[in-house]
Amino acid sequence: MAASQDLGPGSPELVVPGVPAPAPQVGPAQASGLLGWIGVVPFFVFAVLFLILPTAFLMVGAFQDAQGHFTLDNFRQLFQEGVLDAYWISFKVSAASAAGGAVLGSLLAWAAVHGKLPRWIRPTLMTFSGVASNFAGVPLAFAFICTLGRVGLVTFLLKKYVGINLYATGFSILSFWGLTLTYLYFQIPLMVLIVTPALDGLKREWREACDSLGGTAWQYWRYVALPVLWPSVLGATLLLFANSFGAVATAYALTGSSLNIVTILLYAQIRGDVLHNQNLGYALALGMILVTGLSNGGYIWLRSRAERGRR
């Protein structure tokens, strides 16, 4: 005798004893959700392997000595004069390159978006910015040595045709200003990419309303545009600071050990032959994570504030 099993409203199905019931079918919505989870699995695997686990390894190693015993001596060594100087130089280079990149990048983005330039300027600038913001490391260092080194192209042209001996003024590509200038090559394009959407968010109606009420250009920027833009600009500046603070390949290829920034000191502690102290290097890296984490956290908070302001 057949038994009836109700699978849903108005959907009775006969179930014969001894015969297995048919497998439930997966609907389109369930299949789409399953495919969505499959799509994000590589991201989570990548984050665990290359972000979470290395950070946890650094945190554990920072509290250990060479024999694996618990110690706080690594953090006490962070307050040595040489280590503090390295952090201070990195802070100055990052702050200078972030400030310069923020100002120049914002002006470039404004000129492309609201400067009434030919239409081909903006896509060309955005394409170049997308490439230049990722151009770093040994190729960038080599390019600047060939351009502004002692026998670089610009150095030679200035001396021959303008009569300016760049290195007689005290400038050096291996110095603080040389490294800052090199960082600006990828900081300015990155600022252009970040701040352009914020400039696009300035509605034309706001400027027209200000003009209709007799407002000047200064009043428009002072009371309308800048209050809307400042969270995006400040947040992007913090992101530039973090981007510069964590850079190592460009600085190491350009200056070697002549400029004692914290990333080069960290490399020397972990991989060097003279200053080899891995656990101190882990503590240095943990300090860098704290600085860059605060900068990125400030950027995320300011970005959310900017999005609420534009809405």
From TrEMBL:
Q: Which residues cross the membrane?
A: 34-63, 84-113, 133-158, 165-186, 220-242, 249-270, 282-302
Domain of life of the source: Bacteria
- Give the residue range of the signal peptide: none
Is RNA-binding a UniProt keyword of this protein?
A: no
Concerning InterPro entries, the annotation shows: MetI-like (IPR000515), MetI-like_sf (IPR035906)
Where is the protein localized? Answer: Cell membrane
Question: How does the record classify its membrane topology?
Answer: Multi-pass membrane protein
Domain ABC transmembrane type-1 stretches: 87-301
What keywords tag this UniProt record?
Cell membrane, Membrane, Transmembrane, Transmembrane helix, Transport
What SUPFAM superfamilies does the record point to? Answer: MetI-like
- For the keyword Protein biosynthesis, the answer is no
Q: What is its main location?
A: membrane
Q: Which family does it belong to?
A: Belongs to the binding-protein-dependent transport system permease family. CysTW subfamily.
Under what name is this protein listed?
ABC transporter permease subunit
Species lineage: Bacteria, Pseudomonadati, Pseudomonadota, Betaproteobacteria, Burkholderiales
